[in-house]
Specification:
single chain, Beta Polymerase, domain 2
């Protein structure tokens, strides 16, 4: 079975991500679609295993096989965790609804390390732009501020909310280059410090609930195998 067909016929969850999900869309924003597909269990009994992910078949569309998606979510991957919390769900079946019910099982204090590490990588790219051209890519600076805010609030509240709400206009001002780089740097440093401060008293558990997720994946795989017997 082609990867594209797995996405077409076996998607359990699909959503819109990027600026539209973050509440930062403007007239020229793309529509980034992300999803999770469940490869039928018998495909794993072959020498050639099903793919762990697939680009397409639509433009700006990317999907993960369920097991790979869960692995990344348990590691606290920011992109994966945010995908689970998109307010713009385009498709979900019963298996997908159970996946969404496990959102809290994936959240833990590990998010501090993974979000911080991801933010550091993005910051290095911005600094390289400043050294090369004298200015950062303002859109990327905006999204880094959004990510740092999201990480801080997650550690403070134990909930991951990706829509920026009232933060929309201040962030769009950064995207338009209306805020100095020095001010943006100060905001980044402040958010990073606040996230570190929130870590010690965070309501999040130290580790994600591996057992709950493993039980879910086992039951889904078993049901898929029995359905084809």
């Amino acid at each position: 079975m082609r990867p594209e067909d797995l996405v077409r016929h076996h998607t359990i969850y699909a959503c819109v991500m990027g600026s539209r999900a973050f509440g930062l869309a403007t007239g020229d924003s793309d529509t980034d679609r992300r999803g999770v597909f469940l490869a039928p269990t018998p495909l794993f009994w072959r020498f050639e295993k099903p793919p762990t992910h697939c680009e397409g078949p639509g433009e700006e569309q990317f999907s993960w096989e369920l097991e790979r998606f869960c692995e990344l979510a348990l590691r606290g991957n920011p992109n994966i965790l945010e995908c689970l919390h998109s307010p713009l769900v385009e498709h979900v079946d019963d298996t997908g609804r159970e996946l969404l019910s496990l959102r809290d099982a994936f959240l833990s204090r590990r998010a501090y390390d993974t979000f911080t590490r991801y933010a550091l990588g993005q910051r290095k790219k911005l600094d390289a732009d400043v050294r090369t051209t004298g200015a950062p890519r303002w859109k990327h600076a905006m999204h880094l501020l959004r990510l740092l805010t999201s990480a801080r609030d997650l550690l403070r509240t134990g909930e991951l909310r990706i829509d920026v709400g009232d933060g929309r206009e201040p962030l769009l001002a950064v995207k338009r280059g209306e805020v100095s780089w020095a001010e943006v740097e100060a905001r980044m440093a402040g958010l990073a410090a606040q996230a570190e401060e929130a870590l010690a008293g965070s309501p999040l558990p130290p580790e994600p609930d591996h057992a709950r997720v493993a039980d879910y994946l086992f039951r889904v795989r078993r049901a898929s195998a029995l359905a084809t017997v």
